[in-house]
Amino acid sequence: PDVVNSLNSLGTAMRFLGDYQSSELHYQRALAIVQQTLDADHPHAAATMHNLGSLFADQGDYDNARRYYQQALTAFEKALGPDHPNVATGLNNLGSILESMGDLDEAKTHYQRAIEIQEKTLGTEHPDLATSLNGLGSVLQSMGDLDGARLHHQQALAIRQEALGVEHPDVASSLNSLGTVFDSQEDYDNAKLYYQRALDIFEKVLGTDHPHVAICLNNLGGVSSNQGDYDNARLYHERALAIQHKALDPDHPDIAYSLLGLATAALEGGAPAAARAHAERALSMREVTTITPELLAKTRFVLARALWSEPSEQAQARSLAEQAQQTLATANDPSESDTDLDEVEAWLATHHVK
User: Fold this and answer.
1) CA 68, CA 235: separation in Å to the nearest integer?
2) Total Cβ atoms within 10 A of residue 81
3) How much is the mean pLDDT over the chain?
4) Which pLDDT tens digit goes with each residue over 209-226?
5) 3-state helix, strand and coil shares in percent for the chain, rounded to the nearest 5
6) pLDDT tens-digit readout, 182-193
7) What are 138-151's pLDDT values in tens digits?
8) Radius of gyration of the chain (CA)
């Protein structure tokens, strides 16, 4: 166990430094030792599989993250019982991956079960409960229940501020989550306020080049675009992209958010050629990654609009918009798809290939 703990600690240190290859080697060595000397379902094995899941999640490899998180959850349940806090943690992490992959119903079920376990075993003011509440709020937002999302995020924020202090990164995460709810409600002033508060905390505690900083910058860029401030939007997205290029693998899914933000700002700012370059790169990344269909549809529609300015590309542009329309018509994310579908259909009604 001491060797396993040391290997896991080294793996985690390497993961935080962004040395994913070394991190995986340490985790895999730890897992092999546990499985050979103890048992495949031993808590040490579960913890190591959980670490491997987190490693792949950090890299945006959701399929492998899901596989290891599921193995860890199964092992925790077998070794510790179905109501152990570690089981709730496993449910939380698996719920997060399922949400990223667009399986909202399963994600919601996992978060709800985690909350039930944590309220029973940890109480109603524990920071781990706040993590589950925040996750459930995110899923409810994706399912179109903005009031429910806001309530859960506010509960998570209150717990985190009391338990962790007002400048903890988890407090910043809750502030950012509340910003996204206001964003979805088109309350852009409040969205910007919460995003900025989150950004200030992340920069102070984690440093100015952390990936969480990039997330807030992209959100601020999106709000700026929605308010018609395309110059500032571009600056926010450019800074986010620069951080991601330093901190993340070149194919990490989060980079596509920055690229699409840049494409949108360029398109609305009257620069379709620049928009095309960013949107094409974002689409090439998203077409080979397991993401929600709505995100893929959004990316195709932005590229369609960018391509339309070139007569020779209009057939391709319309094809992309039609693909986006078909996806959004059967989407699982009503908070996004209804507005987007109306926009796509209105565009298709006025853009015909001659």
Assistant:
1) 38
2) 10
3) 93
4) 999 999 999 999 999 999
5) 80, 0, 20
6) 999 999 999 999
7) 999 989 999 999 99
8) 21
Which single residue is written with the structure tokens 């290891």? 68
* 18 φψ region: left (φ > 0), alpha (ψ -120 to 50), beta (else): left
CA 79 to chain centre: 30
Residues 6+ apart with CB under 8 A from 90: 46, 50, 69, 72, 73, 76, 77
Distance separating alpha carbons of residues 271 and 253, to the nearest angstrom = 24
Least trusted range by pLDDT, from 11-15, 222-226, 343-347: 11-15
Question: Terminal CA-to-CA distance of the chain, rounded, Å?
Answer: 70
Give 207's DSSP letter.
-
Query: Residue 240 corresponds to which amino acid?
Result: A
Which has the closest alpha carbon to 222: 169, 173, 186, 246? 186
Distance CA 196, CA 260 (A): 21
Q: State which H helix or E strand residue 246 sits in.
A: helix 230-247
Contact indicator for 143, 338 with CB cutoff of 8 Å? no
Sorted by sequence, the CB contacts under 8 Å of residue 170 that are 6+ apart come out as 127, 130, 131, 160, 164
Write down the pLDDT at residue 2. 84
User: What token pair was written down for 195?
Assistant: 């995003």
Q: What is the DSSP letter of 311?
A: G
